Amino acid sequence: MSDHNERRKGLGIAAGAEWCHGSEPRGSRESYDALADLFLGGGESSPHDAGESATLKFPGVAAAEFEPRPGAAPGRREAPERSLERTEGDVAPVRNGPGRRGEVTLLVAGHLPIAGNAWVNQYARLAAVEAGVPVALVRERGDEVTVELVGASDALPADGCGSLDGALALAGEWAGRWLVQAAAVGASVRGLGSVEVLTGADDAAVVGCYRALKQLGPSAGLPVRVTVMGAGDDKAASAERRIAGAAAEFMERQIEFGAPIARVGVSAGDVAMGLRVLFQGTVGVGGRALAEAVVEAARRSRATPASRVVPGSPADRPASERDGGFQEATVREIRRGLTAARPPAEPAAPPRAPEKGRPALTSLVHGLRAVRVRCPVAADVEMAVDDGGRLHLLAGEVSAADSLKALTSASAWARLNAELVRAADPGVERLDASSEPVLHLVTEEPRQALRLLDSPVKVHVLVPPSAAPVVRALN
Predict the structure, then answer these.
(1) CATH 3.40.50 occupies which residues in the chain?
(2) What angle do CA 406, 411, 417 make, to 5 degrees?
């Protein structure tokens, strides 16, 4: 019995969980469904009945029942002992980045830590930073639909839009990526570019993630990614290995994984993170129809859908491999996604002179050297590097909320244009483009930045705000 329990640990199965109603399930898929019922159902479950109904849980949305696909192929016949022999190390997770600019991603929120909506916001914010363009987030929660824009501009109307169609059209003028979270939607919606499942790392979340992947049905060739949230590196890696192993064993599907997100950071405050609500209300559209409406809005928008990118073409190759046109393509993307009609500034322009009597922010933070490049989408943000080549971005000319918006835009631009920054300033050959830029907020009013003290943003207070100031770190 002890050996049996040891084998069960490979999938994180509690030692006290026992098989019910027979010693040999019909197939390995049914076996794993039975395990899911043991974790999620709160009672006994027959492996023979496990495939009859499955429940996909969305934060704030009533449970949606999914019927099994008719004519689904039966699983391979295996003894339960063999299906439990899969260990964490058998299948290595495949790491992949977020979706490409222009694509529509179906977002499935599984068993997330407390405050699930905050985790969805955090994912959307990081997607905007990674892609370098604003992200439209469309969510169905019960009878209500919300359309939000992450990384938005102050040029957007403060009151939002009066209709769902108007909000989708407005989002299409800015968004370079789309995320749609709708109830009871599978991967078969035409026009989707990818599927992203957000999950926690505990036992119930891991099994629930497997069931969510199974309920999605055939992916029609779409990449399916999983992002583990709310766990440290070791626990997230363990969850990834278990999910990858279960998907390979019982679904014969390779799952890609995004970078784990350990905690909710700046996105906990919607105003501070630049999230704008364009529409919120009850509409007669939901589920699959809502997902199709988002796909159509993305198609009509100025952002180029991922389906139009030909594999192997210059647009599909890394920027470092393109034959010229790097600067032109990058500026075009930045203008389209982040600045709309604002003309791009000269990338290699020297830093703007600080106000009379006030030194540059870079000179006030120990260990940083100024970079002779300014971000065209956030000209007030100063760039610097440390001795290890890590890029630092500093802002503090305006309010904390506006400075944070500028820092987010500058961070996205800097990651897209790492090669350009290197070429423009000979002193930054060692620029570490693989790491996120460190964000610094310098303020004379520390109360404005209290919500950021637990975030990754480095907050400094200017003491005293005079002709010869110094800064003191607050976090």
Answers:
(1) 94-308
(2) 125
The two tokens of residue 409 are: 């835009």
93: cis peptide before it, omega within 30°?
no
d(CA 162, CA 166) in angstroms, rounded, equals 7
Report the alpha-carbon distance of residue 256 to residue 274 in Å, rounded.
Answer: 29
Report the alpha-carbon distance of residue 438 to residue 70 in Å, rounded. 51
pLDDT digits (tens, 9 = 90+) for 236-256: 999 999 998 888 888 877 888
Distance, CA of 271 to CA of 274 (rounded, Å): 5
Q: How far apart are CA 286 and CA 169, in angstroms?
A: 17
SS3 labels along the chain: CHHHHHHHHCCCCCCCCCCCCCCCCCCHHHHHHHHHHHHHCCCCCCHHHCCCCEEEEECCEEEEEECCCCCCCCCCCCCHHHHCCCCCCCCCCEECCCCCCCCEEEEEECCCCCCHHHHHHHHHHHHHHHHCCCEEEEEEECCEEEEEEECCCCCCCCCCCCCHHHHHHHHHCCCCEEEEECCCCCCCCCCCCEEEEEECCCHHHHHHHHHHHHHCCCCCCCCEEEEEECCCHHHHHHHHHHHHHHHHHHHCCCCEECCCECCCCHHHCCCCCCEEEEEEEECCCCHHHHHHHHHHHHHHCCCCCHHHCCCCCHHHCCHHHCCCCHHHHHHHHHHHHHHCCCCCCCCCCCCCCCCCCCCCHHHHCCCCEECCCCCCCCCCCEEEECCCCCEEEEECCCCHHHHHHHHHHHHHHHHHCHHHHHHHCHHHCCCCCCCCCEEEEEECCHHHHHHHCCCCCEEEEEECCCCCCEEEECC
pTM for this entry? 0.48
Residue 225 CB coordination number (10 Å): 21
Q: What is the CA radius of gyration of the chain?
A: 24
Tokens 């210059």 -> residue = 314
Report residue 384: phi and psi, to 5°.
-150, 165
In the numeric block, the tokens 């303020």 are attached to: 443
The predicted structure's pLDDT at residue 424:
72
Q: What gap in Å lies between CA 322 and CA 320, rounded to an integer?
A: 6
| Residue 471, pLDDT score | 66
Within 8 A by CB and 6+ apart from 55, the residues are 40, 63, 64, 65, 66, 211
Question: What is the CATH number assigned to the segment(s) 94-308?
Answer: 3.40.50
Length of the chain in terms of residues written: 475
Residue ranges of the chain whose pLDDT lies below 50: 1-29, 31-32, 34-89, 266-273, 303-357
